[in-house]
Please model this.
Amino acid sequence: MNRRKFLQRSAALMGAMCLDWPAFAEQTARLGKPNVRIGIISDIHIRHMDSVKTLHHTFEYFDQAGVDGVIIAGDMADWGFYSQLQLVAETWYDVFPQDRGSDGRHVEKLFVYGNHDREGYTYGNARGVKVTKEMIEEEAIWPRKEKVWQELFHEKWTPIYIKDVKGYKFIGGHWDSWKDIRGLAEYLEKVEGELPKGGRPFFYFQHFHPKNTCSGPWVWGQGGGNVTKALSKYPNCVCFSGHSHTSLTDERTIWQGAFTSVGTASLSYISLWGGRENSSAPWTPQMKRIGTGNGKHGQIMSVYDDCITLERREFVYDQPLGDNWIIPLPLGGQDKPFVFDTRRKNVKTPQFAASDRVTVTRAMGKDVKGQEQDQITLHFPSVLKKTHGARAFDYEIQAEVMDIDTTKVALTKRVYSKGYFLGEAQDGDEVTCVFSRAELPANRKIRFAVRPVESFGKKGDPIYTEWTLYKDRKEGYTL
Model:
């Protein structure tokens, strides 16, 4: 393919990032059959038979999609017990008997251990179940991790391994410590002769995120920097990692720098960033944490000659989570659309529609500790791509105070919509944000400004409530 055709094709592909799913499918159909297709999940946290249902369904989806391999980036057995990992293996072989899909093709296991596989029984006494010494002696995977791997997955276990899937190299690094995959740099040097040159990608996967890559410097549980340093020598490396359970609706979950790093979310539940009123932060007492147990995410990667596509999907309602990510090939050049600074500049700002309104209700309620509060609740519509042109990640709400001839911000809150981590079809309910009357200045006229915010921090224009004097109950309890 000459340079002109390559640029034209790349431009068309990058345009597809802004298309809905049918348009994307039509666009990528022109590329023909992918060279290799891989299902990607992590943090499946299998405990018992009841938790196998989603995994089985996901494997079936991958089979129907014709994947050539499946990455599980760690945390397979929630308590680190043999019987739980056995359920993973049994589910795999039920869908992929003898590592083969329903059409007879070979499907490669690309699995690694995570911290739960090593020591999950030490966390909160295994989520409320009393773990006895006898259970640990009988069930713990880690003291016999090599033997367990051989028994259940029928292949030799090594701390780091390399596999070939239809001509593409995949390297897996098992959980080693909370900060490092020891020996990774040396291993990469050892197999360097097997790795592709000239921008053709190879793929690496582990459990924790390489430091300061996908999800940025704020993400919980990232590595100590050694993996980032090791992978930075390979601009054609695409790394997949889990551990943080960060939602695939968060556009920061993919990062490009010295290499490409992609978060794999979780097939068990989604974790919330703090700082939002309905997340788990201890200083947000008025709103309960939204439930994310139905956030079960995965991806399908398709590799073509001149691009990699990543389909983001959830497996409860079986819906796409957003536009498909498209990584241009070859890697290692200047064409890096997923550099954070680039996306921050180019991403579309979410905006409320001209007809959107924010309303206010007031009533006695209870905070998260059950204490009765005089509460003021704001209600406003969810900003979605299908209705507004761009989807909001969360919302900023500011209480503004009229002070003589000036307007001052008295209090700022951020809030998630209840379905921000799901497909847009599950995120159409109104969004709410709760203030306690005691949080607001007394005897001042107040109005509220609400702004939609995207993942990188761009804020849309506000919609406002009317200026109102919120009297105390003893003064008549009026708005």
